[in-house]
Amino acid sequence: MKKLLSFLICTALILSIIPTAVFAAEETSGQCGDNLTWSYNTVTATLTISGTGGMYNYDYGYSVYRPSPWNQYNSNIKNVSIGNNVTSIGWFAFHGFTNLTSIAIPNNITSIGWYAFDECIGLKNITIPDGVISIGQGAFWNCTGLTSIIIGKNVATVECFVLGGCINLNSLTVDTKNEKYYSSGNCIIEKDTNKLILGCKNSNIPYGIIGIGDSTFSYCTNLTSITIPKSVTSIGSGAFAGCIRLKSVTIPNSVTSIGSQAFFDCTGLTNVTIPNGVTNIDSGTFCGCKSLTNITIPDSVTSIGEQAFYNCTGLTSITIPDSVTTIASWAFSGCTSLKKIYYRGSKEEWNKINLPEDVFPSGAEIIYNPTDCDINNGHSLGEWIAEVPETCTKDGVKEHYECSVCHKYFDKDKNEITDLAIPAHHTPVLLKKIPLTCTTDGYDIVKCSSCGYRYTVNYVAATGHELGEWVSEIPATCTEDGVKGHYECSVCHKYFDNDKKGITDTIIPAAGHSFGEWILRIPETCTESGVREHYECSVCHKYFDKDKNEITDLVIPAHHDPSLIKTTAPTCTTDGYDTVKCLNCKLIYNINYVSATGHSFGDWTVTKKLTCTNDGVEIRRCGKCDETETRITKAKGHKQGELVKHQNATCTKDGGDYYKCLTCGETYFVLDVVKNGHLFFDGECIDCGIAESDVPFDIDLDCAVSATDLTYLKRILLSNKTAECDPNGDGKLNILDLIILKKRLAKK
Questions:
Q1: Fewer CB atoms inside 10 A, N or C side of the chain?
Q2: What is the distance between the alpha carbons of residues 648 and 590, in angstroms, rounded to a whole number?
């Protein structure tokens, strides 16, 4: 029996810790919105959503773990039927539907929630109907089978990671009637900003795009190469994160901003050029790029962010310019192959950089002020170049090596050669002497005995020329000729170069404009200016239209198209204005402000008269809005006049003087001596002599009990005032006290 009882208890304990869901029957229907229900047909493997309104949001660990009620069937479901009255698809609604190959989204759907079709790897093609307005973050994340998507005309919001990890996506299309986005070259582009927001493995970024948005190509693992046009100025955060097959990328010099984690975990990236306009390498920009072996940071960079090159295990060297002033934590941490850090500055400049302890891996050597050959670990000598013998007219060349990096020359023993030339030379025989004149040089005419060539030697500059001051060169422009630097003889007006040799022409011809690519128009909006279509000369940087006529202003000003809604008149305290509405963007705003008129106050009126002891109060009223304004005049107190009487202090009364005010004529008291109270000894006050038993009957507090106390008590009772004395001691002053006092006086 005991063994059986022990077994039952153990069994009960085990059952108590097993989740209830294990024993519960699997549900095939239930609620999935306030007015929505779901049902699953196990025979047809079809999930049906019915009812009216929006779906609930679910979560698979993004913030909490709260899976959908059909979670246990997600790998079995082959078909999804969404009713025509369903208005939204919730978060993670169809997460992990691996057997789902197609989905018909009803036109009544207005929003697709976060990660709604996450990891639906069987989906091939998606058409977003015209009813949808917003597509949430990661809506089609990791849909690896997806090849095309069509976005409807009313979509106005596309959040990040929508197509992240869709490695086989090759077609991106937007309805031509969509006002927010358009598609070109398998790219989805935001019209207002001209920013690329979604791309795929075969995107061809059109010229004129000025920005690549956040996470645009994130985890597009089949992306192998990309051409970024020269119109792009910024690359967003995580733009190419996880593109593991991207081997190289050329970033044009137009780019001035690269966001955090832009090339995060691009493990196949072997080469990247950072443009000269970039000033900051943000946090995690090249984190995990394990195939990078070396990189040169341009002179424009001033800061390197946290984990910028973290875990770049293939990185063996890095060149840092002296423009860098900040390197954040873990910038090069985990770069286990990094052995040399080339810093184009002095050790003193390096020490001024505030470096955290964990920036570089241990053992890396810092080389200050390196040469290009230092960076390349010595000279890179090419093939041995044989000697080229000189002739009578051509210089020869000595045999040598040439460094392909610094382009210096070396002999067979690797010693540097400063001059390769073997000078050409004739063997001259004098034929004739030409004498020196005032305007012509003197020289000898000779003949080479080897080749028979006739030439002149021994030139002597003509002494007759009087050269003026040196005229500096005036460079040519695109449209105007320039002038070479020269001397001019004041006698014969011939021109001479800096070596005093004659020049036949001093003109430097105008080069003409060098037109670049045709730059498309960027339309203006209500809030942002547009840019006219144009050419730009790469030399003078002037702008031209299609007919090559110069344009002085490219800007198409931003403007609203206002329509008057109402006019608000000014008041005493508030401004007046017109309220208008833009016919284009529907913005409501105010214009034509008229300043508040201000109050129009009348005369001051006394509401409380000023006295010696009470403040005076005056008011005045605005004749337009009836608002009032108050001013207070502080009482200045009595002005001492003649002494009326003096009151000596007693045990029960303060001493002082009574004066008459010179201003108001009122008599007032000035305290001089404070009452001390009675001091009794053997039942009698030692100061005033009053008996302790008589104190309650001293109503007028003159330290004596007399008829005046009776008179004083009557006055107090008639005036309903209080007194310090209470003859009968009941805490109240009334007719009973009067009776007690009369009896007391009768005994005296």
A1: N
A2: 77
Who has greater pLDDT, 677 or 150?
A: 150
C-beta separation of 239 from 214 below 8 A: yes
| Strand residues in 175-246 grouped as ranges (E) | 181-184, 187-190, 195-198, 211-212, 234-235
Determine the Cα–Cα distance for residues 246 and 221; give it in Å rounded to an integer: 8
What's at 128, amino acid-wise? Answer: I
Q: Which two tokens stand for residue 518?
A: 């045709």
**DSSP one-letter code for 61:** S
pLDDT at 114 over 90: yes
pLDDT at 10 over 70: no
Residue 376 has pLDDT above 70, yes or no: no
pLDDT at 117 over 90: yes
Q: Per the CATH hierarchy, to which homologous superfamily does domain 678-747 belong?
A: Dockerin domain (1.10.1330.10)
CB atoms within 10 A of CB 21: 8
**Could you give the 3-state DSSP secondary structure of residue 87?**
strand
pLDDT digits (tens, 9 = 90+) for 199-226: 999 999 999 999 999 999 999 999 999 9
Q: What is the DSSP letter of 440?
A: S
What does 363-394 look like in DSSP terms, one character per residue?
TPEEEES--HHHHTTS--B-PPBPPB---SSS
DSSP symbol at 349: H
Q: Which residues pair with 29 in a beta bridge?
A: 39
User: What is the C-alpha separation between 569 and 590, in angstroms, rounded?
Assistant: 12
Helix (H) or strand (E) run with residue 351 in it:
helix 347-351
Euclidean distance between CA atoms 337 and 358, whole angstroms? 16
Domain residue limits, the chain: 31-184, 428-460, 562-594, 599-637, 678-747
Query: Within 10 Å of residue 246's Cβ, how many Cβ atoms?
Result: 24
Q: In this structure, are strands 53-54 and 86-89 parallel, antiparallel, or unpaired?
A: parallel
pLDDT at residue 23, rounded to an integer? 32
Tell me which of 741 and 101 has the higher pLDDT: 101
Q: What is the mean pLDDT of residues 363-390?
A: 80
CB 681 within 8 A of CB 689: no
Comparing 674 with 616, the larger pLDDT belongs to 616
Q: Grade residue 374 by pLDDT with cuts at 50, 70 and 90.
A: low
Cβ contact 147:168 at 8 Å:
yes
CA dist 374 and 342 (Å) reads 9
| Distance separating alpha carbons of residues 55 and 42, to the nearest angstrom | 22
CA dihedral of 269, 274, 275, 278, whole degrees rounded to 10: 130
Q: Which residue has the tokens 């105008």?
A: 510
Rg (CA), the chain: 51
Residue 21 pLDDT more than 70?
no
Calpha distance 314→288 (Å, rounded)? 10
pLDDT for 748: 66
User: Is pLDDT of 655 > 90?
Assistant: no
**Is residue 93 a contact partner of residue 58, using CB atoms and an 8 Å limit?**
yes
Overall pTM surpassing 0.70 (yes/no): no
Distances (CA, A) of 155 to 113, 137, 218, 340, 490: 13, 14, 21, 51, 79
The token pair at 683 is 């039942």
The Cβ of residue 620 has, within 10 Å, a number of other Cβ atoms equal to: 16
Of 549-563, 585-599, 623-637, 711-725, where does mean pLDDT reach its minimum? 711-725
| CATH architecture of the region 31-184 | Alpha-Beta Horseshoe (3.80)
pLDDT at 489 over 80: yes
CB 535 within 8 A of CB 511: no
| Tokens of residue 479, six digits | 């449209």
